[in-house]
UniProtKB/TrEMBL annotation:
Gene (name only): RPF1
Protein name: Ribosome production factor 1
Residues covered by region (Disordered): 1-103
Biological process, per Gene Ontology: maturation of 5.8S rRNA; maturation of LSU-rRNA
Bias-annotated ranges (Basic residues): 1-14, 53-80
Amino acid sequence: QGCTKTKKPKKQPKPPHENGNDSMIEKTEPEHVDAPAEFSFPPTFSVSEIKNKQRRHLMFMKLKQEKRKQKVAMKKKKKKERDALGDKAPPKEVPKTIENQRVYDETTVNPEDEEVAFDEGTDEFSAYFNRLTNPKVLITTSDRPRGRTVRFCNQLATVIPDAHVYYRRGLALKKVIPQCIARGFTYLMVINEDRKVPNGMVLCHLPDGPTAHFKVSSVRLRKEMKRRGKDPTEHSPEVILNNFTTRLGHSMGRLFAALFPHDPQFVGRQVATFHNQRDFIFFRFHRYIFKNEKRVGIQELGPRFTLKLRSLQKGTFDSKFGEYEWVLKRHENDVCRRRFNL
């Protein structure tokens, strides 16, 4: 008696080609679009914003290569223009460097300045330049030096005539300096180290100072140098001082010059060079070789290192009560970066 419901069969969906609606085809296909070969980022985009390291490196190399291509194309274009103009071509632009953008220093020394000549005639180095004293150098290290620092000191002793290397034995410099003066030393050189690498130098002129503190970097011993010459001989070398133009630079030049004897022995053909560039003092030790009557070659003997002046103190070493003539300050703006002290 009860009525039964009959289930209607479900309609199966027609395939897309039978429906006649093309939008279904577009929905079923995967959304994949190939990126163009040359993809340009907006000007505010930075490569560092890419999180993936490999993609970031790849994109950086592509941008670098693109800049290099543009630079080469610009050079070729300018060269063609210059060739086409011939003699009427404008002069070449001088590239901007730190050297030619250097701010003029008021303390630059004029060689004919009488005031500077008087000051240098009465300073701490006047006895040496008047040939009243002969240099004698004591080289020591910080406490418990490592092998590399000891070898560096021994090689410095072969560069500087009449230099003697002594072990520090934990003595304070205030106790070492009176002993040096009593034994006739004119210089005390202390090589400091950090993590087994020489990183500092204290150069104290005796008996009246001054004392200079340098940062030491880029130290290369003789065995680490390629195509080096034989070990230096005991002849006194010539000394070359380059670009020490300011009052402070003159003081540094006189400080280095007083390390070596007055009269170099030209038979040894050895040259010690202190080259100042952007307040970095590069030291090189060469031997020059006569190939024939017109050609002369040089052969580096080593060691080589770079100095950076940190401070200049009046008198002998005194870390507590010493008076400083000059202390290195950090650069505060772009103008200071183009101003050099030596």
